[in-house]
Amino acid sequence: MNDDAQDAGRRNDDSSGAIPRYRATIEPSWIDYNGHLRDAFYGLIVSYAIDDVMDHLGLDAAYRARTACTLYTLELHLHYLHEVKSTDELDVETSVLDADHKRIHAGCRFTCPRVDGAVATADVMLMHVHQGEKVTSAAFPDEVDRALQSLKLSPGAAAAWGPTSRKIEIKRR
Predict the structure, then answer these.
(1) Which of 26, 63, 126, 148 lies at a C-alpha separation of 20 to 30 Å from 135?
(2) Mean pLDDT of the region 64-76
């Protein structure tokens, strides 16, 4: 996480217990021939925002080294709502839309001061896995599960969170 692109982003730490916002400073190489943020970099920004969520939840580098557990992205949907220009600064607010004992459905809302409302949204399904000889899903530690449950949006707030296409959801059996 110490490469140049990660260093271009920074956290807005918050002592409230909420997930800190991720701030991305757009690099010149991220801009396409139209003067807009290239599609692929939305995914990169989501990835860095999720890294911050992992740190916030205690799934940080020390945890990963100690347990051989991490998060894998199972699915990602991006929704481009307004153009993002080279002069924009992006804030990414991440919300826990749903969670169970081994999965997180997170939503990322991209905003910039130039535009009222979201300029893009992403929803992503993450799975907690153990990286052994065979990668297998693994239950979250109790403290992470408690943190996720406390951060999870209410069903109404999750349903109203933002634009979606095919629904990403945790199917319960």
Answers:
(1) 148
(2) 97
Residues listed for the chain: 173
What is the DSSP secondary structure assignment for residue 28, as one 8-state letter? Answer: G
Cα separation, 28 vs 6, in Å, equals 15
Dist CA 52 CA 92 (whole Å): 11
- pLDDT tens string 25-62: 899 999 999 999 999 999 999 999 999 999 999 999 99
pLDDT digits (tens, 9 = 90+) for 53-69: 999 999 999 999 999 99
- CA atoms within 13 A of residue 52's CA, in its CB half-sphere: 26
* Nearest partner of 37 among 7, 4, 80, 92, judged by Cα: 80
CATH class in words for 4-12+21-154: alpha beta
Q: Which residues pair with 107 in a beta bridge?
A: 95, 123
**Cα 85-88-92 angle, rounded to 5 deg:** 115
The position carrying tokens 């220009």 is: 85
